[in-house]
Amino acid sequence: MEAVVVDSIEAFGREEWNRLFPDELEDWSYYRAVEKSGLPDFSWLYFGVRDEAGLLRVAVPAFVTVYRLDTTLTGALKRFADWVTRHFPRLLRQKMLSLGSPVSEICHLGFAPGVPADEQQRLLGAILAKAESFARENRVRMIAVKDATAAQDALWAAAAKAHGLRRQPGLPTAFLDVKFANIDEYLATLSKATRKDIRRKLKDATGLRVEWRTGIDGIEGEVMRLYKSTHANAQFSFEELTSEYFRNVLRGMAGRANCATYWLGDKLVAFNLVLHDGKRLLDKFLGMDYTVAREHNLYFYTWIENVRRCIDLKLALYQSGQGLHALKRRLGSRLSANWLWYRHRNRFVDALFALVERIARLDRQDPELAALIEDSAR
To answer: Which of 152, 274, 290, 369 has the greatest count of CB atoms below 10 A from its CB?
Structure first.
């Protein structure tokens, strides 16, 4: 067995990578599109393990960035972190290697078909050992895993703990099971209050029209204006996308990527990049004009349009991603927990982080998330 780390997904064949991730929308083509998009402040890595015959047994994408430790803080903790940053600007900025991706829904950890559970643990251990070696050689201070899924929690718990990583909750992923023939049937599955609220909001959206596109030629500047507006209003912001990201995903995943554009007269007021296959629709990024968003209830209008799209294409699952999980649950979604694992390579600093974590964890600030974590532990 040989653990490898490369800086381009093209070092792996498309088929050999996708073989480890069957039915995954964010596949080789998606990661290649991301890699070519020039996202600032990130460099890309890919870890894998090959057997004696050269066959790929496990793979996972990764990235290196300078991470702001106050990214997920809110309220008084955020204000205190801002004070620390002003007076000690380097203290809360740490060079970090993380498995996963800032622009994927989960940490994609894939194994060759038929790999048994005990071997999966050994292979993941080899990946983490290679990550440790890379971090040491490249003076990376922190090692992390972004959005390890609940489905692989036992695997991560065994392997990550063996390498000294600690777990804390990340933002959950939302899924809506589409079992209805039309929007009226969907609304009937919601509470009476929610159903009434949505119908009222849709009436306020009079005058909006939607156009589904395969590219953003001719509207690229407006798309980026809306994206930047949404990025600036986000509660948590990690990555900043480029126009090349949207172009590359739409071109590189032709037939599986679309952009829904929302218009008020001749003015573009929202767009939504989505991925899809024969089974599900994945909502990647929504951008909107906040000067009209509330008046026309843009978020709810785009939500209903995506549900309608699933019905029209006979897709059984609408995956709306992370963020706004309390609202998405009210709209009928189920939530699946994701986990963050991390460790600072300096033992003193790592011990300090462990103390701070007790009050800075996301579930300490979010009752809905705390309830999800409690349910997943049962």
So the answer is: 274
User: Bridge-partner residues for 59, per DSSP?
Assistant: 48, 110
* CA separation, residue 170 to residues 105, 186, 325 (Å): 11, 29, 12
Q: Could you tell me if 338 and 152 are in contact, meaning their C-beta atoms sit under 8 angstroms apart?
A: no
105/108 Cα distance (integer angstroms): 9
Q: Write the class of the CATH domain 174-335.
A: alpha beta
Question: How far apart are alpha carbons 136 and 139 in whole angstroms?
Answer: 5
The type of residue at 367 is: P
Contact in structure between 24 and 282 (CB atoms under 8 Å) = no
CA 250 – CA 236 distance, rounded (Å): 25
Yes or no: say if 63 and 42 are a contact pair by the CB < 8 Å rule.
Answer: yes
Q: CATH 3.40.630.30 occupies which residues in the chain?
A: 2-172+337-376, 174-335
Q: Are 46 and 35 in contact, with CB atoms under 8 Å apart?
A: no
Q: What is the CATH number of domain 2-172+337-376?
A: 3.40.630.30
The predicted pLDDT at position 359 comes to 65
